[in-house]
Amino acid sequence: MNILIALLLFLLPVLFLLSWRRRGSSRKLPPGSLGIPIIGQSLDLLRAMRTNTGEEWLQERVRKYGPISKLSLFGKRTVFIHGQAANKLVFSGDSTKISNKQTASIRAILGDCNLMELSGQDHKRVRESLMSFLQPESLKQYVGKMDEEVRKHINLHWQGKEKVVALPLMKNLTFNIICSLLFNMKERVERERFLQNFQEMIEGMWSIPVKLPFTRYSRSLRTSSKVQDMLKELIQEKKVKLEQHTATPHQDLITCLLSKRDEENKRVVTDKEILHNIMLIMVAGHDTSSVLMTFMLRLLSRNPAVYKAVLREQEAIAESKTSGEPLTWEDKSLTWEDLARMKYTWRVAMETLRMVPPVFAGFRVALKDIDYSGYIIPKGWQIFWASSMTHMDESIFPEPSKFDPARFENQMSVPPYSFIAFGGGPRICPGHEFARIETLVAIHYLVKQYSWELCSDDNYIRDPMPVPTQGLLLRIVPKKQK
Description:
The protein is an alpha+beta fold. The protein has 19 helices and twelve strands.
């Protein structure tokens, strides 16, 4: 009897260990290396992006490890996944298993209460509040203000010039549109002060979170604090004006969010959530839209037939406004109905976004262990995805290096979760309609008033947004206005 008990005591741990090993073998980690602690593969990825070889760098990982692999990025253990199934997991995955979570540098600079960090009911609550201002029905009334900002911009920065540098000008334009429509900030001097700090802040968003005086990360943190202080003052001013009834709930995005109340008349969105989401929208509206406009100018200069088709569409819209009497500024302004007619121009924008997505990649976090493609994505690890992996997949988009706006003639023909310039599913970018409007208004006036050609080479880098050589230096020729 004693021998039997002793044998059982000996065998039980062995059986348990064998069982644990069998279970573990079916839940193995993806292939790959975590690299050097903290740094991991961060410098390699950033170097590849800055030489515009980020896609090749990721493709090499796929060739070496397959559709899923582990690495370390920006101080966190990470799993890289790609393809339509990966995009679906990222944008429509079970919110109890996968959540928004950006890198430590982005979170520290933009705050932890923005939409890219929130999940579950908090994400839904804040998103719905933002959409009450950013949905098409609300934005219709702001087309005239956007039109005015674009015309002022062209008069100030394009008129009378022989050459222009497109990217900084487009950033200036989108920032002024944000200040006008989202903040109702009218003073140009105040806008310029804001812009200077803002541009320095975003430089370190994709960086290794090492807080040393000479790093991009530290500089961005300092200017983030300044920008947040400026926004706090602005939010407080809006509060006072609402209380004094000198501002309306839909005057701008901030007053809209401050005015949101639930059934018990309590504020729906906190001051901190307003602050952090304004920061997020500033970055998205300023950087992504300006990149889209810049690369549309670049691709139109390289594709004369596409340029002519865009010009025909825009001239037809302008000519439909003519009448026997001289037109006022307001009569010439674009309307919501005019934008709806710019179907081909928007297809050009979509194809530009496919080929040069402003956002190269993004992150999520696993809230639980996730079984994916035969491997385990452990709880707490980052999930890393890259938009170009499906945008440039020839099995989805034939001849992916060819610029062809016809790909988007029928949206239903584009496979789900393959074009993700604006995200997808319930996590589609809430500002995509805002971006559509400002892009169409800007391109309308630029193609009507100017033709242009490149004065620099056709290359670009990512830092982390795409940056053309010399900021896209253009020689411009004004057209005779009818």
